[in-house]
């Protein structure tokens, strides 16, 4: 007979440790009852326990201890637990992800210990008095740095216990800590998080922080810079072409009957229909299919003088038909993409015109992290299609990191059998530990990997759209998933008595006592670079990935090794000490074995005919003389923190230098300065489309004249030559004749769990990435190779340039609102609908505006239905505002107008 929960709760004692079952300990319960948990009891308790997370303060004077350093940053948070029934025992543990480490527990009934990375373990102390029915039990603690976003607070707290025989029961997620999906926006929401209400205590980063919370009134002032002008979109095209001339006395050309391809011209230009099929499919999706009665499209060869850059094309739209000239498939595809961008969805017309176009940068990339949280193959295919639509040509796919390995590697099944899953297995024999709120179970969408067949499909899909896939498995740091997978392989083979095979791919020194911590708080995530088995593993992985590229028909020509954020590992590794003594490569300082790894792997790649690539911090540690001359560096340094200096140093090395600067190109940052917006925020808390549009990639330091830093303060960029005390130049301007090779948007997925959330973060920012990668605006400040100082007072960015930038943004904003977002709707892309700016004056008149004119705005008074906002209107009660997509299927996040 099933006992009642209340009675059984009195009889329960919970037991869970972060150790294996044989190492478990037992706490003293606060009741004399001796019965233990059953699975049903555990499930019921987890289902009914209510958890609420509340940030109290980020202010150092309130949050930090009295003896804190002057510049120390801390926060205070509280977790409320409410049980509907008594649960009196104190022998239990709860696991949860806490991205900022807990420093001190300010409650004597609880203790918190960090297990690994962001995984923490909550336990009761001997002073725990039990959960009483209906009573709120509050855990107060101090954490490191700050919490400035409601999405910082990770979901899926879980509890595990043992039965009467000491056998661990299946873990149970505490139901109140699960995410929910907002019906209007489709976005994840966290119902267990209390909303921020105090801008100073909860959203101020420091006493110097001047960034203003982007509430409706703030957005209203920002949005005044644009107005509704649909006429600006008559001939608008994204990305902006190099030249565009309307043809005199020519009427608009209607594509309502579709298009018909001149097959003879396809033959004459040796253009394979498969090379443009994807571009034609996008055109059909917006209502312009191939048809016998359609406008004739002819293909022709572009003259050599007009085709100096890959992707160049010429497009002529006239009464007689459409002519696309190019010298290779990407140019023809881009010509068709321009037709899709030009066409007016209301009547499917394009004005007669001629366009001559070519890209500013040959490298126009998008990086996606699928290792922290896995994202589906379909998401990638959709992304690739949109990249092609906007003339981007490089997909940097980050598939290996601490939290997951996402690609099947022939001969190393453990990488995906174990490294692709996070679950509650403290031995990490079947999976790696939970992180980032993934919860205790392996069968969740944040886990997963691409099979070899999946990866081949992805490459072929990209290749058909003229996009190169650049794989990345981060190393030597950021490698915990690989390390734990190979540890499991070692144990399994040793158990079978095959010691030689077991040692083949070992990645760490078991006798290494080095104490280190990565930026993500791991102390075991770095390959040992002094072991030959490490290089054997790297070579195996690269060889297998290269084979997949060969099978897909797109040879592997660039491989990104990461090389970033390597913590202070190896210092106490006996193998590394022997390596230094006996090393035939001449490395005599243990602090240089990290650069040695990068140089060795880079040359290993070069010998295979593959360009090595890495992030700028790791690349800066190498000796350029030891690196292949065609090496690629992705510069992820923050401009306001003198990031332009490293960018200039690396382009001066002669490397392929790709700008990836966080405060403008990290799409996992919030769109607006609002704690409800998703994303990390360590370099920016307000990275909207206009900010990306304003980027001057050809003159990084000049951005100091138009941008503020993360705390809303001006900064100075001194690009003049700098020398040290010995007279050696430490930084300086770009050498004349050298330039950056491209720009790349980044999407890191620590806080981005679903495909829908990732699309929200990428779009429409990806469109502005394409604009800046393809088109060099006339308002960009010319670079000064002799060096210069830039700040808010210097006048290199002239008033005329600023006015021209504002004018072009006005056109772009209207293009997005009136034309382009509707096309994303037709592609099923769940882009971010902007939050609405609004004010209510003293007479009760609501006035609203939006960043992308043309989108419909709605308003709702308290207790009433949503109504369309057309003009200023009198409201009597508290009012909310929101925007809706052109197809009416999705809504933006609503906000109360204060």
TrEMBL record:
PROSITE patterns: PROKAR_LIPOPROTEIN. It is an enzyme of class 3 (hydrolase). It catalyses: Hydrolysis of terminal non-reducing N-acetyl-D-hexosamine residues in N-acetyl-beta-D-hexosaminides. InterPro entries: Beta_hexosaminidase_sua/sub (IPR025705), CBM2/CBM3_carb-bd_dom_sf (IPR008965), CBM2_carb-bd_dom_sf (IPR012291), CHB/HEX_N_dom (IPR004866), CHB_C_dom (IPR004867), GH (IPR017853), Glyco_hydro_20_cat (IPR015883), Hex-like_dom2 (IPR029018). SUPFAM superfamilies: (Trans)glycosidases, beta-N-acetylhexosaminidase-like domain, Carbohydrate-binding domain, E set domains. Residues 47-218 form the Chitobiase/beta-hexosaminidases N-terminal domain. Residues 1-18 form the signal peptide. It comes from the Bacteria. Keywords: Glycosidase, Hydrolase, Signal. Its EC number is 3.2.1.52. Belongs to the glycosyl hydrolase 20 family. This is beta-N-acetylhexosaminidase. It comes from Shewanella aestuarii. The lineage of its organism: Bacteria, Pseudomonadati, Pseudomonadota, Gammaproteobacteria, Alteromonadales.
């Amino acid at each position: 007979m099933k006992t009642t929960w209340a009675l059984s709760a009195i009889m329960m004692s919970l037991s869970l440790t972060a150790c294996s079952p044989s190492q478990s300990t037992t706490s003293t319960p606060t009741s004399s009852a001796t019965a233990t948990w059953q699975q049903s009891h555990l499930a019921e308790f987890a289902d009914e326990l209510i958890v609420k997370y509340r940030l109290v303060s980020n202010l150092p004077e309130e949050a930090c201890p009295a003896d804190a350093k002057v510049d120390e940053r801390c926060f205070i948070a509280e977790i409320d637990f409410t049980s509907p029934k008594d649960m009196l025992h104190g022998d239990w543990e709860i696991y949860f992800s806490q991205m900022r480490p807990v420093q001190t527990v300010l409650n004597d009934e609880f203790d918190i210990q960090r297990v690994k990375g962001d995984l923490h373990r909550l336990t009761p102390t001997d002073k725990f008095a039990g959960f009483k029915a209906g009573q709120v039990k509050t855990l107060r603690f101090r954490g490191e740095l700050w919490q400035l976003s409601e999405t910082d607070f990770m979901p899926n707290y879980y509890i595990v216990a043992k039965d009467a025989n000491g056998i661990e029961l299946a873990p149970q997620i505490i139901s109140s800590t699960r995410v929910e999906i907002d019906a209007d926006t489709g976005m994840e929401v966290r119902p267990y998080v209390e909303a921020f209400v105090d801008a100073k205590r909860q959203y101020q980063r420091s006493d110097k922080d001047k960034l203003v919370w982007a509430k409706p009134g703030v957005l209203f002032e920002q949005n005044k810079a644009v107005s509704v002008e649909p006429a600006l979109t008559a001939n608008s095209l994204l990305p902006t072409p190099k030249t565009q001339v309307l043809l005199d006395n020519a009427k608009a050309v209607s594509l309502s009957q579709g298009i018909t391809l001149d097959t003879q011209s396809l033959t004459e230009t040796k253009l394979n229909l498969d090379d443009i099929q994807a571009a034609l499919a996008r055109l059909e999706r917006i209502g312009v299919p191939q048809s016998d009665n359609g406008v004739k499209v002819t293909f022709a060869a572009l003259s050599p003088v007009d085709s100096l850059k890959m992707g160049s094309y010429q497009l002529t739209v006239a009464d007689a038909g459409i002519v696309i000239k190019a010298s290779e498939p990407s140019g023809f595809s881009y010509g068709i993409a321009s037709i899709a961008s030009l066409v007016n969805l209301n009547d499917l017309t394009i004005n007669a015109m001629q366009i001559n176009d070519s890209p500013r940068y040959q490298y126009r990339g998008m990086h996606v992290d699928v290792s922290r949280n896995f994202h589906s193959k379909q998401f990638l295919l959709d992304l690739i299609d949109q990249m092609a639509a906007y003339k981007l040509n490089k997909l940097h796919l980050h598939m290996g990191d601490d939290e997951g390995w996402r690609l099947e590697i022939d001969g190393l099944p453990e990488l995906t059998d174990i490294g692709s899953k996070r679950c509650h297995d403290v031995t990490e024999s079947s999976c790696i530990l939970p992180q980032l709120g993934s919860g205790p179970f392996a069968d969740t969408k944040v886990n997963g990997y691409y099979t070899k067949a999946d990866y081949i499909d992805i490459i072929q899909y990209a290749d058909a759209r003229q996009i190169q896939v650049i794989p990345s498995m981060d190393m030597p740091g950021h490698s915990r998933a690989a390390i734990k997978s190979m540890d499991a392989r070692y144990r399994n083979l040793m158990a079978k008595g095959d010691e030689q095979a077991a040692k083949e791919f070992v990645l760490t020194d078991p006798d290494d006592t080095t104490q280190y911590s990565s930026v993500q708080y791991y102390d075991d995530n770095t390959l040992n670079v002094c072991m030959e088995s490490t290089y054997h593993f790297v070579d195996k992985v690269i060889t297998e990935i290269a084979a997949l590229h060969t099978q897909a028909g797109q040879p592997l020509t660039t491989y990104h090794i990461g090389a970033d954020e390597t913590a202070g590992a190896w210092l106490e590794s006996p193998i590394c000490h022997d390596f230094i003594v006996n090393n035939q490569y001449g490395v005599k300082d243990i602090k240089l074995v990290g650069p040695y790894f990068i140089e060795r792997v880079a040359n290993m790649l070069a010998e295979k005919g593959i360009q090595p690539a890495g992030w700028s911090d790791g690349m800066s540690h190498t000796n350029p003389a030891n690196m292949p001359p065609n090496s690629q560096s992705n510069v992820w340094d923050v401009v306001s923190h003198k990031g332009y200096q490293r960018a200039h140093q690396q382009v001066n090395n002669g490397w392929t230098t790709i700008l990836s600067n966080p405060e403008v190109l990290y799409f996992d940052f919030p769109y607006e300065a609002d704690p409800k917006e998703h994303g990390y925020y360590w370099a920016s808390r307000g990275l909207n489309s206009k900010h990306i549009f304003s980027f001057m990639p050809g003159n990084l330091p000049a951005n100091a004249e138009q941008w503020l830093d993360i705390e809303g303060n001006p900064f100075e960029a001194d690009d003049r030559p700098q020398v040290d005390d010995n007279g050696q130049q430490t930084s300086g301007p770009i050498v004349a004749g050298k330039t950056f090779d491209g720009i790349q948007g980044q999407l890191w997925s620590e806080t981005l769990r679903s495909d829908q959330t990732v699309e929200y973060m990428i779009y429409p920012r990806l469109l502005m990435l394409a604009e800046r990668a393809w088109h060099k605006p006339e308002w960009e400040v010319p670079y000064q190779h002799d060096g210069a100082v830039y700040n808010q007072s210097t006048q290199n960015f002239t008033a005329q340039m600023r006015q021209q930038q504002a004018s072009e943004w006005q056109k772009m904003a209207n293009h997005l609102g009136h034309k382009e977002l509707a096309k994303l709707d037709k592609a099923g892309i769940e882009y971010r609908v902007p939050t609405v700016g609004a004010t209510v004056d003293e007479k009760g008149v609501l006035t609203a505006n939006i960043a992308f004119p043309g989108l419909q705005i709605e308003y709702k008074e308290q207790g009433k239905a949503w109504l369309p906002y057309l003009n200023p209107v009198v409201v009597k009660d508290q009012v909310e505002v929101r925007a809706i997509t052109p197809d009416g299927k999705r809504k933006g996040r609503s906000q109360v107008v204060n």
